[in-house]
Design brief:
Helix content: 55-70%
Strand content: under 5%
Order of helices and strands: HHHHHHEE
Number of strands: 2
Strand order of the largest sheet: 1-2
Distance between the termini: 23 Å
Number of helices: 6
Length: 151
C-alpha cells in the first residue's frame, strides 16, 4: 500500500501523516485488488488444509465435540474455498463481512492457547476487515468501470 501514495523520503517515515491526502481511482483499485488477492490466498490455503484433512485440524474438531471431524473439515474447507473465489471475483460487502465474522469467531476454538492462536492469525482478519471497510466508504469506485460511483 505504501507504493500507491507519493514517494516517502527517509526522514518522513515517522512524521505525522497528512490525512487529507486522497487516493485516485487507480490507487483504490490497486489497494482493493491487493486485499482481494490476499484474502483469496488466505482462505484457499486454510480451506485446502481442511480438504486434505490436516491431522491437527481433525484433532481440533474432535476436541470441540464433532463426531465426524473429516466431514466437518470437508464442509469448512469447501465453504472457505468458495468464499475465497467469491471474494476474488466480486467482493460483495456482506460476503466479506460474513467471512470476517466466521474467521474471527471460529478460530477462537483452538484447544491449546486459544488467545495466542487467534492473535497469530490477525492478518487473516485484518485483510478481510480492511477490504470490508474499503468497500464501505462513502465514495467508492466500481472496479469494472472507470468513473466513480457513490455508495
Amino acid at each position: 500500500m505504501l507504493t500507491t501514495t507519493r514517494p516517502i523520503r527517509a526522514g518522513e517515515w515517522f512524521h505525522k501523516m497528512d490525512i487529507r491526502q486522497t487516493l485516485d481511482e487507480s490507487q483504490w483499485k490497486m489497494i482493493i485488488h491487493t486485499m482481494q488477492a490476499t484474502a483469496f490466498m488466505l482462505l484457499v490455503g486454510h480451506g485446502w488444509l481442511n480438504i486434505v484433512e490436516k491431522a491437527g485440524l481433525l484433532k481440533q474438531y474432535a476436541a470441540i465435540g464433532f463426531e465426524n471431524p473429516q466431514r466437518v473439515a470437508h464442509i469448512v474447507g469447501g465453504l472457505e474455498i468458495m468464499g475465497a473465489v467469491a471474494i476474488l471475483i466480486k467482493p460483495l460487502r456482506y460476503v466479506v463481512l460474513a467471512f470476517f465474522i466466521w474467521k474471527t469467531g471460529s478460530e477462537l476454538f483452538y484447544p491449546a492457547y486459544p488467545v495466542w492462536e487467534w492473535v497469530e492469525r490477525g492478518g487473516s482478519y485484518a485483510v478481510l476487515l480492511g477490504l470490508w471497510l474499503s468497500l464501505s466508504t462513502g465514495k467508492r469506485y466500481d472496479i469494472r468501470k472507470t468513473s466513480a460511483v457513490s455508495a
